[in-house]
Amino acid sequence: MPVVAAAVIAFAGTSLALSAAWIYQWRTLNAGMVDPVWAATLGGIAVLAAAMGTGDVTNRLFVGIAGGLWGLRLAVHLWRRNYGKPEDARYRKFRDQWGDAAGRNMFWFFQLQGVIAMLLAMAFFVPAFNPTAPSPLALISASLIWLAAVTGEAAADRQLRRFCADSRHRTQVCQVGWWRYSRHPNYFFECLHWCAYPALAFGAPGAWLTILPPLLMAWLLLKISGIPLLEAHLMRSRPAYKVYQQTTSVLVPWPPKPATQAPSP
């Protein structure tokens, strides 16, 4: 199947899934469930690209298994975090700002998530349609990066979940495990995950496109909807967060600095 046809099918499925998530938030006034749906659709796109791809079978297997497992783990984690819980502060802020237009704006905001998902999915489609078999070095590199990213993100998610489960930590800042070295280690490993696929795109037309997903993810998290909104909320709800900002790297894990010095980049 041509890559354009596969991409159209993927986008249609993604749009439908996010429309269903919008209906759920319209009925419950809780937009948080878009997060696990978004992760699940991206994992589904990886499997779809592998199934419909015309590239080397090793590339397709890697994309389907690696992308599918990544999406499944993240979707399950986000479901456990959001289902039956109060609406995420980021979405609550949007709802308050939009007022009577919140329903309509949420729909288009959800569809924008679908567009972003398709841009990220270039990391799946290019290797899945690459007829060139990966070298052993490329396959090993991709596998090691993927393993480090997924296990690291899972560990960071687990550490934060256990910390927040203790009611004594309600106004405290998590600084255990990876969170001692990065204010957002889960986001760092999320960006790292997208670096696993370019190694499988060597020799493919448009191989350079696989460089864009990790850059796009980092930009979104650092500048748009991830870190800025989350940290604004944490600054209001956790008094010690300002010191944490001064001592701890925002994204890349790095040894903490004294409070009198500037934070690591």
Automatic annotation (TrEMBL):
InterPro entries, per database record: UstE-like (IPR010721)
Single GO cellular component term: membrane
TM annotation in the entry: 6-24, 36-55, 61-80, 101-125, 137-156
Keyword entries, A-Z: Membrane, Transmembrane, Transmembrane helix
Stated name of the protein: Membrane protein
